[in-house]
Design brief:
The chain has 138 residues and is mainly α. Helices cover 62% and strands 3% of the residues. It has seven helices and two strands. Helix 2 crosses helix 3, helix 4 runs antiparallel to helix 5 and helix 5 crosses helix 7.
Length: 138
């Protein structure tokens, strides 16, 4: 089992690598007799049960906080309709829809992080939510 295949599995689930590795390590590390941690082998990190368990934690984590890409490639300013950018926008819309107060999350994504184009917001949300997002961001 290589780390490359592990990365592919994590990519398929749409998780950040750092989140997956930290959570998986926390679940797999064993403390041996002298109190030193024994980290898991790479093959242990790709077990189906572990992937599912960490994915459920990822979903809970996404419900609690917005996941915004750090790369400028994914900003609305640099949007040029690449498949990765379109997928990212869909991911942002999905995150905003999970929020109880959608207009705050929408305003944050559009105005604070430049993570969503207004055109995508207009096609994805009711105009009243967009108006509230604009008012709350001013």
């Amino acid at each position: 089992m290589s780390f490359w295949r592990l990365r592919q599995a994590v990519d398929a689930l749409g998780m950040r690598y750092d989140f997956y590795l930290k959570t998986a390590f926390d679940k797999c590390v064993k403390v041996i007799a002298n109190g030193r941690p024994l980290p898991p082998r790479p093959a242990q990190l790709k077990k189906e049960e572990l992937l599912i368990e960490v994915f459920h934690e990822w979903e809970s984590y996404c419900e609690a906080s917005l996941q915004i890409a750090k790369s400028p490639y994914f900003t609305a300013t640099l949007f040029h309709n690449s498949p990765m950018q379109v997928d990212y926008e869909d991911f942002i819309v999905k995150q905003v829809r999970m929020r109880q107060v959608q207009h705050y999350a929408l305003g944050t994504c559009i105005y604070r992080y430049d993570a969503l184009r207004i055109e995508k917001a207009l096609e994805s949300f009711d105009i009243s939510i967009i108006n509230q997002a604009i008012k709350s961001s001013i």
